[in-house]
Amino acid sequence: MKIRLDCIVCFMRQALKASRLSTSDKKIQEKVLRSVMEELLKLDWSSTPPELAHRVHSVVKQVTGVKDPYREVKRMSNDYALKLLPRLKKIIEESVDPLETAARLAIAGNVIDFAVYDDLQV
Questions:
Q1: C-alpha–C-alpha distance, residues 10 and 116, integer Å
Q2: Which residues contact 88 (CB under 8 A, 6 or more apart)?
Q3: CA–CA dist 16, 32 (Å, integer)
Q4: Cα(49)–Cα(11) distance, integer angstroms
Q5: How confident is the model at residue 116 (pLDDT cuts 50, 70, 90)?
Q6: How much is the pLDDT for 115?
Q7: 3-state secondary structure string, 2-63?
Q8: 19 close to 69: Cβ distance less than 8 angstroms
Q9: What is the dihedral of CA 54, 57, 63, 69, to 10 degrees?
Q10: Mean pLDDT across 14-30
Q11: Per residue in 44-95, pLDDT tens?
Q12: Residues 58 and 64: beta-carbon distance below 8 Å
C-alpha cells in the first residue's frame, strides 16, 4: 500500500498525540510538529505508510528524548488485559472451536494500535 493524501493528516495527528504523551511542554510539541512537517515535505510518495510512520515516530523520539511515548498507555492496557485473562480463558475453554476462538481473540488484541486510534477504549 502506498501513501495516500489522508495518510499525511493521520501522521500529523499521530505526531501531535505522541508529543503530548511525551511532554506537556507546548514548545517541544510545536517543535515536534514542525520537524514532522519538514520530514513530510521530503516525502517519497512511493513510500509505504509503515515506512513513513517509522520516520515520524523517530522524529518524535529525537525531539522529545522519550523512547516510547506510548509506554504508560501500553502498561495500562496490559494490566487491563491481564484482568480479562481469566474470562478470556473461560470463553476459549467453553468454545466449540477453542483454537479458532483463541486465534480470533489474539487477532482482536493485535489490531489495537495506540498511535492510530485516538479514542481507543479497551
A1: 8
A2: 105
A3: 8
A4: 9
A5: low
A6: 52
A7: CCCHHHHHHHHHHHHHHHHHHCCCHHHHHHHHHHHHHHHHCCCCCCCHHHHHHHHHHHHHHH
A8: yes
A9: -140
A10: 97
A11: 889 999 999 999 999 999 999 999 999 998 898 889 889 999 999 999 999 9
A12: no
Entry pTM = 0.75
Which set of grid coordinates corresponds to residue 42? Answer: 521530503
DSSP conformation class of 67 = S
Residue 55, C-alpha cell as written in the block = 520516520
In this prediction, residue 104 carries a pLDDT of 94
Answer for the pair 114, 120: CB distance below 8 angstroms, yes or no: yes
DSSP string for 85-115: HHHHHHHHHTSSSHHHHHHHHHHHHHT--TT
Phi, psi (rounded to 5 degrees) for 65: 80, 10
